[in-house]
Amino acid sequence: MATDFTGSLSDQQITLNLKDNGIINYYSAKPEEINSESIFFSLKNNEMVELSFGSLNNVGDATNFIEIVVPENIIAPDFFFFLTEELKQDGYQMNVNYQMTISDQSIAVYRKYWENILPLLRAFGLQIVQLKKPIAKPRHKYQKSLANVPFKIDYNGSKATVYWVKRNELVIKKGAILLANAPLTKAGLIGFAGKFGLRLRQENENQIKENILTSDVTLRSVNEVGTFLYFAGTNSWKQFISPDGKTLDELTIVR
To answer: For the chain, what is the total number of helices (H) and then of strands (E)?
Structure first.
């Protein structure tokens, strides 16, 4: 499939404007200005050493960088998470300790977009290979018997009572206390999990006052709950504690 584009060239940067497929920038040195909504591949000898969203803080001795500025029909944080999941399947270890729920329709759009731009990324030297057989992630199974169980969360200053009422429906009860500020990276920036948590809070801003829920909030996954309450940073399946002291992980993991 051919992709039409216009471009520009300078000593350390090549820019491709792909029209409906966004913009790709290639840098032969670390760029000085970082777009907080861009996705970056950091390379050394054409091998990926880091995939990052809105920052280039942990790129080690990377020598080349590819920036993706997604088009308007692509939600940048969602597409970034989609990429981490794709790369995990190729055996890459991604430093992502949260989970997003993305619709099948959106995944289809993101996969098509990825297929469209990948040849151009490869032309800039990006090599993605299957490193090893992917390690299966722990699976958890929803149980109707848990629908009326009040799970307590008390982590990092956040406290809440949560009910897992349906497979994709978790209710955080009124009165929950949210962690006030998103944690910052070493560079003093809000990381990806923090940005996702802030987005969830913005979507439910009418139910929050001074970091306390004034009415119930419904989210779609255990990890969304953790990101909403305390900006992730831990295994949220182990932060849900039942009245008899068992974690949600213990009660629902498929062995």
So the answer is: 5, 12
Q: Is residue 129 part of a domain?
A: no
66-90 pLDDT, tens digit each? 999 999 888 888 898 898 888 877 6
- Answer yes or no: pTM beyond 0.85: no
CB 43 within 8 A of CB 65: yes
Q: Is residue 197 part of a domain?
A: yes
Q: How far apart are CA 54 and CA 203, in angstroms?
A: 21
Q: Do 167 and 73 fall within a single domain?
A: no
Give a yes or no: residue 68 inside a domain.
Answer: yes
Q: Are residues 101 and 163 in the same domain?
A: no
Q: Which domain holds residue 60?
A: 6-123
Q: Are both 117 and 157 inside the same structural domain?
A: no
**231-239 CB contacts, 8 Å cutoff, 24+ apart:** 231/179, 231/182, 231/183, 231/193, 231/194, 231/197, 232/97, 232/98, 232/193, 232/196, 232/197, 233/97, 233/156, 233/183, 233/193, 234/97, 234/155, 234/156, 235/97, 237/138, 237/140, 239/153, 239/154, 239/155
pLDDT of residue 1: 53
